[in-house]
Amino acid sequence: MNYELSNDEQKQPKVSFVPAIRELLRYIQGSYWKIFVAFIFLAITSASTIIAPFLIGDVTNKYIPVGDRDNLIKFLIILAVVYAIGSLASYFQIRVMGQVGQKILFNIRNAVFQKLQSLPLAFFNQNKSGDLISRINNDTDKMNQAFSETLLRFTGDILVIFGIGVVMIILNQTLGLIAIATLGLMLLVTAALAGWIKSRNDMSLQRLGELAGSIQESLSNFKVTVVFNRRDYFRDSFKSVNENNRGAATAAGIANSSLAPIYNYAANLASALILIGGIHILILDKVYAGQMPEFGTLLAFILYSNTFFGPLKEMAELFTQMQVAIASWSRIFTLLRLKTNLVQLDIKEKDESGDIMKFDNVSFGYDKENMILNRINIELQAGKTYALVGPTGGGKSTTASLMVRLYDATEGQVFYKGKDIRSYSPEELSEEIGFILQEPFLFSGTIAENVKYGNTKIAEYTDDQLAAKLKELGLEQLIERFGDGLQTVIKPGAENISLGQRQLISFVRVLLRQPKLLILDEATANIDTVTEQLLEDILNKLPEETTMVIIAHRLNTIERADQIFFISGGTIEKPVDFDSALGLINAQGKMKS
Amino acid sequence: MDQKTPETTKKQESLISFLKNYKALIFGVIFLSLIVNLLTLILPRINARVIDSLQNLTYNKDEALMLFGVVTTAILLFTMVQNVLSSITSEKIAAELRRQLIEKISRQSFTYVNQVTASKLLTNLTADVDAVKQFINQRIVFAFAAVVQLIGSIILLLSINWRLAIPVLLTIPILGVSFGVIFSKIEKYFVQGQEVIDKLNRVINESIVGSALVRVLNARRFETDKFLVANEEARGVGTKIVNGFAAIIPIINVVVNVSFLIVMGYGGIQVIDGTLSAGDFSAFFSYIFIFIFPIVMLGFLASGIGRAFATYTRLKEVIDSEEPKEGGNLKKEIEGSIELRKVTLDLENKRILGDINFTVKPKSRVGIIGPTAAGKTQIFYLITGLIQPNEGEILVDGKPINDYDRDNLYSQMGMVFQDSIIFNTTLRENIAFRNEEMSDETIWKAIETAELKDFVDTLPEGLDTKISERGSSLSGGQKQRLTLARALALNPKILLLDDFTARVDINTERKIFANLKQNYPEITVVAITQKIKSIEEFDDIVLVMEGELIATGKHEELLKSSLEYQQIYNSQQRTED
């Protein structure tokens, strides 16, 4: 059950180029045809780039020395046509590849999001939310840059380099080989530096995540830093992450700018060698041998050097961008590789007791040393009300979480309606079991959107239909308390309404689902007792077969329970009646003092 | 995001004046870039000279190689130094910007942070700072390099052969105009794109923070649908941007090619006529590469400069935001009396509290009770000075709280918030939060009073146990008691509790209040609560409903005098034996 996207480098699984690309290819499926079209356009563009200098060289060789103006003009027209075709093709090629890139990015974002949705709660408990958010936002953005730019230019450059390489060798072997050798040398340099560049980027991204995590924490704890007058704590805790980030980012910046000057140097030097080599081979040697000097071919080589090394210089930059993208991709990839352990299993084992829910020797813990629940047994009968009481930290919320399968038991079995809870689909469980969480969460939007949230049956309801439904269930008076009723706006973080009001909305949200088993985990802790009484009346009017599990500290809320479970230290006791339960609670108090 | 406001020049000045602090570094980078660019411009001239030296029969292979070697090596070295310096400079500036932002935020009021919202400040500190950094690291140097290269290559082209240069240079306006048109369009999409990405991020963020709810309600489909809409939009805008860029590159190609045709045709004729040397003919081709590139760069840069300035303005708003004048100079040891005098509070044009008056005597215990959304927490925030009333005054020991030196006041007030805020550090640091030098004795006294001793004793590492961000290792009640211990460790004169008992069971609560009386006999307690039981024995009870003070008095008095109090009492009485 380890979902930790560790920041520790040693624990981070190594993601190398090939498997990362192979995984990427999965997101390209469906775009093959478009890529094929783009490649045809790319081939046409590259051909025109390759042919043009050849034509220029040819003209210079044949017509300029002899002063043939007519043929010069004729060739200019041919050249213009070649250029026109090339430009048009490049337009379409970029357009089509751009669409493909956006589609791939779309697919990746979807995959990441779907993966997040498929992972269990434990994943979110084990990772810092600030870091997680930063990871997803920053890294998909880096991928975005890679896809909207790099991919396009990279493929084009490769074709041009390859084509020109071939033509240069055909035109003159020695000069062509100088160019190819430079290319080979550059590939070696790149290979040598690639690991360093990627590791600097890995580190920088990690530090950025830490920075975001630290800021997120400081801001959400702001009021405590104010009243404890520890504004300096805010600044100091930031200081070190800011410095760490600066160091890592500077190193990454230097690494990322290391390739370009080297490529540039090689390109400049090779151009010079080709020029001087060309002078000797194409001009001086020919003159000595009494032949026509091939000045045009030399010109063609000068042009080719530009078109050959231009893309090569660009590739240095693109390659660095790709290292950044790969570093990002490997972080996304690590996330995508995680698998949920909460899968639907085919478990034949049955519970014949007729209980709606049964815990059979259930134990639970995040790790073996710290078990939270130890071999507990619970039987819940349909239509009855149960209360879970006990000291804080005793395991009440954990028990409730197991009932809705937020986690799986470490040992033992949980049965719902006679079948192992793991054999139900999430849809089946959520349709029948309602759970009001201790910490209410509201989405930004309106109250109407929030109470309809996730409920497929009423998702399409208009406000009038929704109001009618609320009335039917006796919930309308809870919504009337808000100024604008169902249309009351909830801001991000729900800062504009009180904690008690958030709990009210969560309450309405779950009751609208009309669950068969309703679990309230201190769901009314911050609601006043008068309103709470109103809620209780609503609960009393629920259909008789509704089973209820209530976790609360206030004794009046659990008074009417058919049975009380006393959970403490991970074990469970079942007092026979309310008074003996009170006795247990009081005894617990005395034991401690 | 629209930078075409009349204030544009002012914005630019502000970023530039910020950068003035880094004059030396930035000029260093620009100077190096100048050298690199001039050397780059020389290369085609050397090419031309070598070719022409053939015709003049002055060709010398070794001299040519030497020249090339020296110039290219110089370019390599200067570029590398420039890159390192540029990275150091831009990261230094980014870190400084972040430091300034945090410095300011840390001095801001609670109200300010709430209004601006934490998520926006997080964007300011990460994405926005990054954008300014990129601007410095790449754009300033590139823009400068582009201008140098453009002007340099124009001069060189004109000096080599002005007749050939003029038609070639005429292509520049064509490029300029078409870039202007396309970039203004793309710019619009960039703004749209940012909005879409913000939306996408909001969906992702909420699905992470609300992950427990999403799972309980099995609302993954719902989340995915919301996400798909945003993602589809992002893809749409992204495609539009790519299409815009698709138009740019062929335009560049056309201009380069037309220039080639001109050089080839007109230049070729000049070579035939003998008015242009072969070396210069080839140099012309090279300069076309050199001068087209800066034009392209400038096009891209122009589109980004406006955004960088707009971003910096957003950051500047935070950095220049007015610091609240919190508190005065009054320093004294307080006795612990609190008075609210005619206090009125409006939030977002809504009346939250109206005309609240009550007094808390020193060393007494006062409970504030009332239904959900009655304004209880707002009263708490007012007493702590986290927010300011619209009318009226809050007095401590008869003096307005704004007269007190904040540090002095806060060192004597212990506050326990409704949402248990835990820091991602050790138990000890969480409790001894205000003063890290606190003695173990003080810490343990607070822990024992908060009924946390049994728990701490079970921890192998005791006080030095690390607590994770969400305190997932602690239960709700343990977190609440930990924040109580933090407040008590101040040895405060006044203890303010907001709904402290919500997640603590009744027995523990009773014991805590008993411990409090025993260990901190001098303390004034103000407790906001839902449970009458918790405050029954308090010296005074204040009943608040819908922002209004309904009644004050002792428990027995209120039972007789206040219908509302009776109603609350009755609703809680059924469990009494």
What secondary-structure arrangement, pairings included, does this model have?
The complex is a heterodimer of chains A (593) and B (577).
Chain A (H helix, E strand, L loop, with lengths): L16 H9 L6 H31 L6 H50 L2 H6 L2 H43 L1 H48 L1 H6 L3 H26 L2 H30 L6 H43 L19 E11 L2 E11 L4 E5 L6 H8 L7 E6 L2 E2 L5 H7 E4 L8 E2 H6 L10 H10 L3 H5 L8 E2 L8 H13 L5 E5 L7 H12 L6 E5 L3 H4 L4 E6 L2 E3 L4 H15 L1
Parallel strand pairs in A: 3-10, 3-11, 6-9, 9-10
Antiparallel strand pairs in A: 1-2, 1-4, 4-5, 7-8, 11-12
Helix pairs in contact in A: 2-3, 2-5, 2-10, 3-5, 5-6, 5-10, 6-8, 6-9, 6-10, 9-10
Chain B lengths: L7 H12 L3 H33 L5 H47 L2 H7 L1 H43 L1 H8 L1 H39 L1 H6 L3 H54 L4 H42 L18 E10 L2 E11 L4 E5 L6 H9 L6 E6 L2 E2 L5 H5 L2 E4 L10 H5 L8 H10 L3 H6 L17 H13 L5 E5 L7 H14 L4 E6 L2 H4 L4 E6 L2 E6 L1 H7 L1 H11 L4
Parallel strand pairs in B: 3-8, 3-9, 6-7, 7-8
Antiparallel strand pairs in B: 1-2, 1-4, 4-5, 9-10
Helix pairs in contact in B: 1-10, 2-3, 2-5, 2-10, 3-5, 5-6, 5-10, 6-9, 7-9, 7-10, 9-10, 14-16, 19-20
Summed up, the helix count of chain A is 19
Alpha-carbon distance between the two ends of chain B = 66 Å
Q: Specify Rg of chain B, calculated over alpha carbons.
A: 36 Å
Q: Which CATH class of the largest domain in chain A?
A: Mainly Alpha
Spatial strand sequence of the major β-sheet of chain B: 6-7-8-3-9-10
Strand percent estimate of chain B: 5-15%
Structural class of chain B: alpha/beta
Describe the structure.
The complex is a heterodimer of chains A (593) and B (577). Chain A is of the alpha/beta class. Chain A has two domains: 17-337, ABC transporter type 1, transmembrane domain (ABC transporter transmembrane region fold); 357-592, Rossmann fold (3-Layer(aba) Sandwich), CATH 3.40.50. Chain A contains 19 helices and twelve strands. Chain A has a six-stranded mixed beta sheet, sandwiched between helices. Chain A has a four-stranded antiparallel beta sheet with strand order 2-1-4-5, covered by helices on one side. Chain A has a two-stranded antiparallel ribbon with strand order 7-8. In chain A, a hairpin with a 2-residue loop joins strand 4 (411-416) and strand 5 (419-420). In chain A, helix 2 (32-62) packs parallel to helix 5, helix 6 (173-220) packs antiparallel against helix 8 and helix 6 (173-220) runs parallel beside helix 10. Chain B is an alpha/beta fold and 577 residues long. Chain B has three domains: 7-160, ABC transporter transmembrane region fold (Up-down Bundle), CATH 1.20.1560; 162-275; 338-573, P-loop containing nucleotide triphosphate hydrolases (Rossmann fold, 3-Layer(aba) Sandwich). Chain B has a six-stranded mixed beta sheet with strand order 6-7-8-3-9-10, with helices on both faces. A four-stranded antiparallel beta sheet of chain B has the order 2-1-4-5, covered by helices on one side. In chain B, helix 9 (220-273) packs antiparallel against helix 10. Chain B is elongated and about 120 Å long. At the A-B interface, helix 2, helix 3, helix 4, helix 5 and helix 6 of A face helix 2, helix 3, helix 4, helix 5 and helix 7 of B.
